[in-house]
Amino acid sequence: MAQEKEKEVLQLTEVTVRFAGDSGDGMQLTGSQFGDTTALFGNDLNTFPDYPAEIRAPAGTLYGVSGFQLHFSSSDVHTPGDSPDVLVAMNPAAVKKNLHDLKRNGIIIVNTDSFDAKNLKLANYTANPLEDGSLSNFKVYPVPITSLTTAALKDSPLSPKDVARCKNFFALGLMYWLFNMQLDQTLNWITKKFKKKPEIMAANEAALKAGYYFGDTTEIFENRYWVEPAKLPKGTYRNISGNEAAALGFIAASQKSGLPLFLGSYPITPATEILHYLSEYKYIGVKTFQAEDEIAGICSSIGASFAGNLAITSTSGPGLALKTEAIGLAVMTELPLVIIDVQRGGPSTGLPTKPEQADLLQSIYGRNGEAPIPVIAAASPADCFYMAMEACRIAVKYMTPVMLLSDGYIGQGSEPWRVPMVDELPEIKVNFRTEKEGFAPYLRDENLSRPWVKLGTPGLEHRIGGLEKQHISGNVSHDPDNHDFMIKLRAQKVKKVEDDIPLLEIRGDEESELLVVGWGGTYGAITEAVDRLRKNGTKVAQTHFKYLFPMPKNTKDILSRYKTILVPEINLGQLALLIRDQFLIPVEQLNLVRGLPLKSSDIENKILELLGGKK
Amino acid sequence: MSNNIDSTTGKLTAKDFVSGQDVRWCPGCGDYSILAQVQRTLPELGIPKENIIWISGIGCSSRFPYYMGTYGFHSIHGRAAAIASGVKIARTDLSVWVATGDGDMMSIGGNHFIHMCRKNVDLKVLLFNNRIYGLTKGQYSPTSDVGIISKSTPYGSIDYPFNPLSLALGAGATFVSRSADNDPKHMQEIIRKAADHKGTAFVEILQNCVIFNDGAFDYVTGKDNKIEKMLYLKHQQPMTFGKDNSKGIKLDGFKPVVIDLNDGVHSVNDCWIHDELDKDAARSFILAHMTDHPELPMPFGVIRRELKPTYDEAVEAQIDAITQKRGKGDLQKILLGSNTWEVS
After folding, report:
1. Which member of B87, B326, B343 has the closest CB to residue A42?
2. At what angle do helices A27-41 and A167-178 cross, to 10 degrees?
3. Partners of residue A291 in chain B, C-beta under 8 Å
4. What is the CATH classification number for the domain harbouring B22?
5. A381 vs chain B: nearest CA distance in angstroms?
6. Which chain B residues contact residue A307 at CB under 8 A?
7. Which of B87, B329, B342 faces A236 most closely, judged by CB atoms?
8. Cβ contact (<8 Å) for A462 and B71?
């Protein structure tokens, strides 16, 4: 591979690349392979798959364009990048759809073979943009990717159609050359993946190498680029998506609590991978149940919890709506349960594949009756691991359902994760009641939790259910005073969780006039905006909620210190509403509900606007 | 699964299965009989009481767990099958029972019902079929006859009813049976058989609602009718009924017909021999659909039984097999995955 480097290699600190093509072009795979390679090389990175809800939308159409963006750098990275520096476009529709995001002077590598009359028409181009000068603000590198791939694979026994499908590996090889990266990681992956299909293995390898060598031999590129490894804390790293991290967090919680893990779930985008991953790990004892619907997903988990398992159910917004009644049942029966909601665009079916901070209010308030449950949210892909463990801890300690919010962006996006040693992870204490003496199903401990009895424990046979419970005895009770008491008791129990969670922290300039307040998956974008402003001399502070209900005890104190509070959210202001409601503190809002992660530049501009240009 | 439960020593009696809560069904309700037969039968099963779990949904029938001295869960409308499935899959060592009604299981819980049957989760399901919504005070149910006058059908129902046995058969249930609240001995026998069956055991119990649908089953189980209208099925026995078993059922192609065993033409040798384990489900459907023909008696007993692995067993078997193949999962290895790099 060590070819003579005749072309000048320019060093960059960070690059954002977007791969775009038809949803059948393999762009998700290409992007994730590129990401894994940059990660193995030691760059910090953040990825964002952006794909249509249709599995194979008609080829060449605008709505069939699938994209994968990644941002890799020699320093800390918090977002997949606002605007790509490089766009790899497999067809005209991919150019049309992505051009407006691209940086001025950015690089476009296009597959010229797909720029025929039919594809141009499908992309609504009246003239070929490669010829009419409309791309003059960009550096366009026209490469006949399909025909070069076909030529490289002329000896392959595969059909012409299958040969053409290898073109994404050609493009990937070319990108590896352009960014001075090694092919090894992807070659290993190909070998493993296509072990049983040697013809496909050979073809993909050949296409990858052909792409790489093409970069080397062609005259069209003036430069190559190079991004140094990032200086990350010492340790063993892997690349991880939020959904995989959540699955691993649940397994870790199961191991650390000694409770068998049960997942009852129904497939729903973008949460399904949690079911996939946990189904894979049966050999550590995980039981997964793909139920007939969302309701059976949560109800089977409630059954498993009643039986004494660590029970999880995974879903997204519309599924959460269906689970509503059952969450209320878990509140009334005070059984531990974790509901993970990987949020997507709503309402209704909404935008299944696009992220949105859609369900904060649904999570906190979306049930009949007074049915409070702790609601927490992960801030990044790797954070899903720790918050999954945390959700389990709170659920079993307080005998309550816990809502863990993730979203399509952090669930499916990925970042490097310093893998913790198992010994570093906290134990989760569980006390099953076995003592007959003095037992009642609704006794309270110091946390106001009722006893958890493993089914099969002799002498503690009891009945629970959705009807109001009499304090202590747990018998059905319609007594007015008892109901009032129990409503307040359940609320108080959940409120007590605030004594058991970390305080809010301030990042940035404590003495600033303005505090940016975020929650969940917008952490990266807010952090990047704040860091950039501070680097340029603007004083600004940031705080981030991972515990939304109850909120950390110092919330009011922190929020009261700042003249201006800005709450950027991918919704119409759900956290903003909670803050106003609970603390009577006025807040400014930034709400962009575009089915995309917030851009740090949008947050930056809003901060500057609120500060009136003041530094 | 670690679950060190000692078997209860000493013999259990019906009293051990009484919770002590006041039973609040209407006086004369058929549910009392079902409760009594269950409490009489369970001690005979040799299962420690703490390993018996009762799960219900919503409705009059679903109050059942409160009256049983076992672990119990009175859940939400229609969801008993899903919750019970979770219990059983999590803990295959438990004996899990579902008490439900025609509104709870055939209407709002219909989806869970068919999928429980299809998966063959090892659950025992007693369907209290009174063909009416009792707890909401008298609306027609998915098993009510066309034309029934109820609070929500003042001009008569125009809905076609479900045939619960046919629905269970269609969904692939491996034990499908019927009994009646006014035949305690028979009900006890069927409950025992359901308990012995490995897999989803479905028992439809014709249950009289004295308030909103009184006498709904008199045309079959009433004192004056039962001799002529109830056909008790016995495995590998000819189907006979009527006074002194003077009548039989003959299978004429796909058509069951009543034959007179004293007419000098027919004998018991002409009768259809019941086979619970019939390989051909078509004959089980014929039995389930005898109720479509008013001239035929209604079959009671085990319509069909099929022996195949249960879902919950298969879950554990698969975990064992994959664990044997790959070795017991190690958390650290799982966290590390297959692609790591060192930063020093």
Report:
1. B343
2. 30
3. 82, 85, 115
4. 3.40.50.970
5. 14
6. 86-87, 90-91, 94
7. B342
8. yes
What is the enclosing helix (H) or strand (E) of A480? Answer: helix A480-495
Q: Please state the φ and ψ torsions of residue A515, each to the nearest 5 degrees.
A: -115, 125
Nearest to A284 among B55, B328, B339 (CB): B328
pTM of the model: 0.93
- Give the contacts of A36 (CB within 8 A, at least 6 positions apart): A185, A186, A189, A239, B339
Mean pLDDT over residues A379-406, rounded?
Answer: 98
- B86 part of a folded domain: yes
B264 domain-assigned? no
Mean model confidence pLDDT for chain A: 95
Is residue A492 helix, strand or coil? helix
- Identify the structural domains of chain A with CATH numbers, from first to last: 8-227 (3.40.920.10), 238-424 (3.40.50.970), 507-610 (3.40.50.920)
Chain A residues inside the 8 Å CB shell of B8: 458
Query: Which residue among A291, A307, A465 places its CB closest to the CB of B75?
Result: A465
H helices of A145-194, where?
145-152, 160-164, 167-178, 184-193
Helix axes A167-178, A184-193, angle to 10 degrees: 160
φ, ψ dihedrals at A402, nearest 5°: -125, 135
- Beta-carbon neighbour count of residue A76 at 10 Å? 15
**CA–CA separation, A14 and A45 (whole Å):** 9
Asked if the Cβ–Cβ distance from B86 to A299 is below 8 Å, we say yes
Residue contact A461–B328, C-beta within 8 A: no
- Please report residues of A whose CB lies closer than 8 A to that of B112: 292, 295-296, 299
Alpha carbons B158 and B174: distance in angstroms, whole number: 32
In a domain, B316, yes or no: yes
Burial bucket for residue B159 (CB in 10 Å: 0-12, 13-18, 19+): middle
Residues of A in contact with B90 (CB under 8 A): 260, 262, 287, 303-304, 307-309, 311
Domain count, chain B: 1
Q: How far apart are the CA of B145 and the nearest CA of chain A, in angstroms?
A: 29
ipTM above 0.90, yes or no: yes
For every one of its 344 residues, what pLDDT tens digit does chain B have, with 9 covering 90 and above? 333 334 445 689 999 999 989 999 999 999 999 999 999 999 999 999 999 999 999 999 999 999 999 999 999 999 999 999 999 999 999 999 999 999 999 999 999 999 999 999 999 999 999 999 999 999 999 999 999 999 999 999 999 999 999 999 999 999 999 999 999 999 999 999 999 999 999 999 999 999 999 999 999 999 999 999 999 999 999 999 999 999 999 999 999 999 999 999 999 999 999 999 999 999 999 999 999 999 999 999 999 999 999 999 999 999 999 999 999 999 999 999 988 999 88
Please tell me the distance from the alpha carbon of residue A239 to that of residue A510, in angstroms, as a whole number.
33
